[in-house]
Specification:
Length: 271
Amino acid sequence: MINFIIHKLKRFAWFKRLNAKVTYELLAKKIPAKDWHFMNYGYAPNSQETQLDLPADTMQRYPLQMYHYLGAKVSMEGKQVLEVGSGRGGGARHLATYFKPASYVGLDLAQSAVDLANSLHALPNLKFIQGSAEAIPLPDSSVDIVVNVESCHAYGSVSKFLSEVKRVLKPGGHLLMVDFRNQANVENMETLQQQLQDTGMKMLEEENIGPNVIQSIEEEDNSKQERIRALVPEKWQKLFAEFAGVVGSKFYLTLKDGSRKYYRFVLQKPV
C-alpha cells in the first residue's frame, strides 16, 4: 500500500522534490562515506572506448567509469564546469582531477551531501554548494560545461532544469548527461528526448547505453552486495539492494527487458 501511494505521489512535482531531498539527506548521513563515493549504476565501456587504467583495488570502478566516459566527450581542461546533482562527490573528484578543469562546482539539493562531499574531496579547483537544479545559483553564461549524472529523473520539472542549464551555459557550452526513464511512465525516454529538443540546443550525441549499464550491474554485483551487507543495517538491506539496482532488482530487470531505457546525451548551446 505504501509503495502504491508513493508511486501515485511521484506524479506531483512537489513530492518528487521532497522525496529526492529527504532520500539523499538520509543517505549522506547514514552510509559511511569512505566506502561509498558514487550512487550511479555504473558503466562498462564499449570496445572502441579507450580503456581507463585504474588500480586493481579501485572501489566502485564501474560508477567511476560512468563519469569518466561521459566527461571524456568534450575537453574540460581549463574550463568552468558545473555538476548538477553531485551527490557524494566521487564523480566530481575524478573529473576535477583527471580532466583538469579550471574550476569544478558540484551542486546538490541535499545539504548533508554537500557537507559530506566538501569534507571528503578537498581539491584547489573543486567545491560543493547547496542549491536547486531548477534555480541554479550561478550567473548567466558563466559555465562552459554542465554535467548531470542519473539525476534529472528526480526533479520536479525537467524543463525548468534544462532552461536553467541553457541560461548558465556560455555560448558554445556543453551539457553532458546520462539518465534513465521507465517506458511505462508518462515521462518516458521519448518525453526526455523532446524536452532536450525543445531547449534549442544542438544534439551532438545520443546513445542508448542500457547494455553498458546492465554489464556494469552484473560485473559489480558481488562487491556491491558485500558493501550492502557491511554498511547497511540488516533490516534495511533488502530495500537498499533494490535502490542500489543489484542483479534481480526491479531496476535491473526492467533495464534487461527493455521496458526501462538508459541514454547518454551530449548537447551544445548555440554560439
